[in-house]
Amino acid sequence: MTSFDRQLISEATQLNTFTKINRAPYASTLGPFNINVYVNQDVVAFRKLHPESSGSHVTLPVGTLIVRQVLDASGKVTKVTLMGKGPAGYDPTLGDWWFGVTDASGAPLSDSSGEEVGRLTDCHSCHIPRATDDYLFGVPLADQ
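The structure assignment produced for this chain is given below.
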């Protein structure tokens, strides 16, 4: 794990400095669970992103961190997925976005490839079609 990975994970644990985007936990399209979404910068621009439409042409600034809490049926956080906007050139194939998956306390989770942090190419296939939305899905308008 790099110092950049550690920095973003550390920042993600400071949710009291982030803005919650959704009004209440809402159903994820990735599985049978609910999520909460938090953003640390440019909330106005992020709120223009919606999974039900594309072509917003929003580009979030370097340093933006998106925290997505995955909740179990009782509302407890089971894991956290992260996206951080890295500096120009970090990963030009996906708008310089960094990815991470942690447990509720911020410890990186691992899969067969190792710790789930950095340039997670498993995430690319879903995000590449959203190039006109800075590779992001946002939160459904009805849930904001």
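Interim note for the steering committee: The chain has one domain: 3-138. The mean pLDDT is 94.
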